[in-house]
Amino acid sequence: MRIVFEKRQSISRKAQVLVPVVSLLLSLVLGAILLALSKANPWETYVAMAKGAFGSWRNFSETLVKAIPLMLTGLGISIAFRMQFWNIGAEGQLVWGGVAAAGVALFWADRIPAGLLLPASLLAGIIAGGLWAGIPATLKAWIGVDETLTTLMLNYVAILYAEHLYYGPWRDPHGYGFPGTAQLPPAAWLPRLGNTRAHLGLLFAIIAAALLWFIFKRTRWGFELTIIGENKTAARYLGIDIGRNIVLALLLSGALSGLAGACEVTGVSHRLQQGLAIGYGYTAIIVAWMAQLDPIAILFVSILMAALMVGGDQVQMMMGLPAAVGLVLQGLILFPLLAGSLFTEYKLKIIRGREKATTGGQV
Amino acid sequence: MIDLITSLLAITMRAGASLVYATVGEIYTERSGILNLGLEGMMLMGAVSSFAVAYYTGSLVLAVLMAMLVGGLLALTHAFLTVTMRANQVVSGLSITLFGSGLASFLGQRLGPAENSHYLVGLVGPKFTPIAVPGLSQLPLVGPIFNQDPLTYILYLLVPAAWFYLYKTRAGLELRAVGENPRTADAMGVDVVKVRYLYTTIGGMLTGLGGAHLSLAYTPGWSENITGGRGWIVIALVIFAMWNPARAVLGALLFGGINAVQFRLQAAGTNIPAAYLNMLPYLTTIVVLVAMTWWEALSKRIGAPAALGKPYMREEK
Known about the structure:
Shape of chain B: globular
Order of helices and strands of chain A: EHHHHHHHHHHHHHHEE
Number of helices of chain B: 12
Largest sheet of chain A: 3 strands, antiparallel
Strand content of chain A: under 5%
Shape of chain A: globular
Number of helices of chain A: 14
Number of strands of chain A: 3
Number of domains of chain B: 1
Low-confidence stretches of chain B: none
CATH class of chain B: Mainly Alpha
Strand content of chain B: under 5%
Distance between the termini of chain B: 62 Å
Number of strands of chain B: 2
Radius of gyration of chain A: 22 Å
Low-confidence stretches of chain A: 355-363
Mean pLDDT of chain B: 87
Helix content of chain A: 55-70%
Strand order of the largest sheet of chain A: 2-1-3
Largest sheet of chain B: 2 strands, antiparallel
Helix content of chain B: 55-70%
CATH architecture of chain B: Orthogonal Bundle
Radius of gyration of chain B: 20 Å
Mean pLDDT of chain A: 89
Oligomer: heterodimer
């Protein structure tokens, strides 16, 4: 008797829904075991996390603050991933977005009319993020350089450059040695929702999600990108210019991450400082992947992942447990999800006796 | 001047040892065709677990074994997900990093003794100290090579052995074949799945050991983010070394050297922004990647595994 994986005729809808749900439950069980082992009450911890993330409008708004950059970068990444372009450079693209937005807001405030300062800053962030993603895209399209590694390396270049700016030439001279730029002029502040820290970036993310949904469901360009991802040979037969599409798609991908960075700077911190590159660009890869690259699902998965972070912070404050519990849970969801995604495309088949496997590979 | 170079070499070697362990490990993993971006998580777990074991048992040997066990288990998870379950290698690796760094941070605040409110931060445990080889360690220039901690001395054997194994043995040939063309290797009778599991796990054990060098020798003790991004630097160093264990040393020394020079420059009060120096390894890596791809023929000779990152599905021809 052998167990083989047999490729399904079509992707299983049931598995597509079931696998993420089971993964979430499994991660909560595994997390509970870990909490119990470290002498914390799992139930109380989970309740505290849920309350911390969703318990009040104030708490939920903090979850949104963390969800917005995940949404925007997650959407950006999803464009690249659809073409099987492994852009893991969202972190660097986000940082460049923040740098460019802060630069415009700080140094061009006297040249740009106050009413246009915020749009100009955001636009600068969008352009900077897009161009930064354009570098690995061009290298890939022209020479075929592996994008996984170049995008990753460029993250460090971007982060180091941003650090150089706010520790060095851009440092606030009146900041008592605090590493960060001066505060941006209020004209460049992104409006916030009520008296919370959640900002208009949420609206941008929703618009971007709708736009991507439209592009991929309704336009020829979206179709071309999908074909490139699924079958490059077929794309070539159809006369699709793969190189050009890679560059265009990556400009858009980076632009969204750049917008995320610009929103962080103009909406949350109001200055360029330490704490911009805290891994949103990496978590967003996981968000995009969990959402199976569906733009609308990305919005909700972002909220879930952000809730785990905010919930983690809350249990640290209220129960003295390490905030990292949220990160551990994030990681724990992924393992069953990664393992389970096989079942959307394959099914298990048990073969008895000498019956021959027709399409299955031995495991 | 000679004194300066000697002391730079001493700092460089101390900073570089953990990088060499992880780089050699990842070279073996990637040679089998598996890209493991989980290094940062595995190093952090190696660092925290080995420090905890050293603190409670007083045994450095047990501590090192623990780091290898933990690193190996995380890498085994990666192998299971990517080889058996055919998960995306990038996403799986990132998950290992996310989970490993989260868990390391969690454990660092839970494993400590009650009187330190369960924190491991700030505790002093047993550590590896440099052992000077009489006579040799007094030599100018090369003296520091003979005044290292035991984990670094082990590298003097490990690196040549790793090189020899990869290029001069039958098993090494099979490993390279699997990374180059799994289908041909399969036809030759090599068990692709077994090879990928084996070397991914070995890579994780070495990476865990690299983490242990940080918390037991280089900066003894546990602190959040003790790796400071070393796990990512290693990804760059593997390319820089062009997948050759012998060259891993050069890359690690270059990076460690940049750290050391920067330290000196700051001490001397010069004004060259550290950021530009720190960018060098990453920029160099990009240049290496571009050059490698440009000269496809060259790439064959220097041995980037052609099947790196691609899952092997026996049934899908």
